[in-house]
Write a structure and sequence with these properties.
Layout (H helix, E strand, L loop, with lengths): L11 H23 L3 E9 L4 E6 L6 E6 L3 E6 L3 E12 L11 H10 L30 E5 L3 E9 L2 E8 L12 E13 L2 E10 L21 E11 L3 E12 L3 E2 L4 E11 L2 E12 L2 E13 L3 E10 H6 L4 E9 L6
Antiparallel strand pairs: 1-2, 1-5, 2-3, 3-4, 6-7, 6-18, 7-8, 8-9, 9-10, 10-11, 11-12, 12-13, 12-14, 14-15, 15-16, 16-17, 17-18
């Protein structure tokens, strides 16, 4: 009798199990290879001066999540973030990815408001409107040059935190060979944050520029000695760096006529609707010649990290009769300072 042959252990089920094992091992190798990729670091600055540095994870509603070397994963409220920038150097990706259990709706809402260094950069022109100033604090090194109507050249400098000084020349009257040219504008502004959404400040200036731009090459249009004007305003700003409004009230002193008997008021609003576009409006109530006169303006501001361009229309009761939209207002500002980290 023939000896019984050993039975083969190979079967369809055995082959399927072996193939599945090979597939799992291959997936593990691919996952291991992916952990060697690199991810960028981000530097996040909060409104109290705190700096958080680490790798961004999936956000949650109202906050962003950051993996740091010292404290692990931390959550930062979005309303406290004032600046976020990407750091060029990279770090190895973690072996265990961040949790993605947050609801998709919450992630979309968070991504819509989280500042991004390439989009929602810190705009240095946020502290002013068309002409009016806000009480938003400035940081040392936020310097800029401004050209308005090609007629007024001014420089704005922040030598220390919370203080901005500015000075400029009105040069259009040089073309009329006026003996009073050029006009001078000097002033200062300060602003402090009482709460994250309430800011107080004050501004003052002196000016002896003409009230109207003189006609070129006509020296008789601006031959009288100009009266200097001193003005001081208290500022109350409510809002954030992207959406804010400022109410101001103050007094004026005329070099020859003395104090203006009634105060002046202003209400200005600015909204950064998209990263590089502001909507701005100024509204003034000025007492002159025995009664209050209203001035208003509305326009757009196009911004980048270095340049801002204002395109607005300025109007009042008299101008509206002849020019419905008002006079065009064009201003260009260029940053040249360097803010300390």
């Amino acid at each position: 009798m023939d000896a019984e042959k050993p039975r083969s252990r190979w079967s369809t089920i055995t082959g399927f199990r072996s193939g599945l094992l090979v597939f799992v091992l291959a997936g593990s190798l691919v996952s291991a290879a992916q952990t060697d990729t690199t991810r960028s670091l981000y530097r996040i600055e909060l409104n109290d001066g705190t700096v958080v540095q680490g790798e961004l994870l999936d956000p949650v509603a109202g906050a962003i999540r950051v993996r740091t070397d010292a404290f692990g994963v931390v959550e930062v409220l979005m309303q406290r973030v004032v600046r976020m920038e990407r750091i060029d150097r990279t770090l190895p990706a973690p072996s265990r990815p961040g949790s993605t259990v947050e609801a998709p709706r919450g992630r979309r809402a968070a991504r819509a408001t989280v500042p991004d260094s390439s989009r929602w950069f810190r705009d240095r022109h946020r502290t002013r409107y068309t002409v009016a100033l806000s009480a938003l604090p400035v940081r040392r090194g936020e310097h800029s040059y401004r050209n308005t109507w090609l007629a007024v050249q001014s420089v704005h400098v922040a030598p220390i935190d919370h203080l901005e000084v500015f000075g400029g020349l009105e040069v259009s009257s040089l073309l009329s060979f006026s003996p009073n040219a050029p006009g001078v504008v000097v002033g200062a502004r300060t602003g402090w944050s009482v709460t994250p959404h309430v800011h107080l400040g004050a501004a003052g200036l002196y000016s002896n520029t003409p009230y109207e731009i003189p006609a070129p090459f006509n020296r008789f249009e601006d031959d009288k000695v100009r009266q200097g004007l001193f003005a001081g305003h208290g500022l109350l700003t409510v809002g954030t760096e992207r959406f804010h409004g400022t109410f101001s009230a103050g007094v004026r002193y005329h070099e020859w006529d003395g104090w203006e008997p009634r105060p002046s008021y202003a209400l200005a609003v600015a909204a950064r609707v998209i990263p590089k576009l502001w909507v701005v409006t100024d509204n003034w109530l000025v007492h002159a010649d025995g009664r209050y006169r209203a001035w208003w303006s509305a326009g757009l501001r196009f911004v980048s990290r270095r340049v801002a361009v204002d395109l607005s229309f300025v109007n009042n009761e008299e101008l509206r009769e002849d020019v419905f939209l008002g006079l065009p207002f064009v201003s260009v500002s260029i940053n040249f300072g360097r803010v300390r980290p």
